[in-house]
Design a protein that fits this description.
single chain, 5-stranded mixed sheet, 129 residues, 2,3-Dihydroxybiphenyl 1,2-Dioxygenase, domain 1, alpha+beta, 22% helix
Length: 129
């Protein structure tokens, strides 16, 4: 079998709010926005490519309750960069909320941040990519 993970579903309260943050604030590329009548197929990806996010609008109480907590409070997604200082500064300037100051670990430089929906991310520059 030849396979890869092409996308991860990220539950958001609204498609346009997800696009506004990921595309408008972070500068991700809007790959697809296909109207399917009762829902949309919306995918975004960082400009460096890689696994895409499928922005999935919450439907019902259980999905709404999962917004921002898809990983049970753990860091859920990892945004890898080739220039931590540049991207950390740009994200701060764009109003992204970091939970901590950058720290240096054996595997690289990292800082935890949250999207406006509560999902915890690592901004990460690996020591040995």
């Amino acid at each position: 079998m030849s396979a890869r993970i092409s996308a991860l579903a990220l539950v958001v309260p609204d498609y346009d709010a997800g696009i506004a943050f990921y595309v408008g604030t972070l500068g991700f590329r809007l790959v697809q926005d296909i109207d399917q009548g009762h829902k949309r197929w919306v995918t975004v990806e960082p400009h460096g490519g890689g696994t895409r996010l499928l922005l999935a609008r919450a439907e019902g109480a259980a999905q709404t309750a999962a917004i921002g907590n898809q990983a049970g409070g753990r860091v859920f997604l990892f945004l890898q960069t080739d220039d931590f200082a540049r991207d950390h500064a740009a994200m701060l300037a764009a109003g992204v909320t970091f939970e901590e100051a950058p720290r240096h670990e054996p595997y690289g430089t990292v800082a935890v941040w949250r999207d406006p929906f509560g999902n915890r991310w690592d901004l990460l520059q690996l020591a040995n990519p």
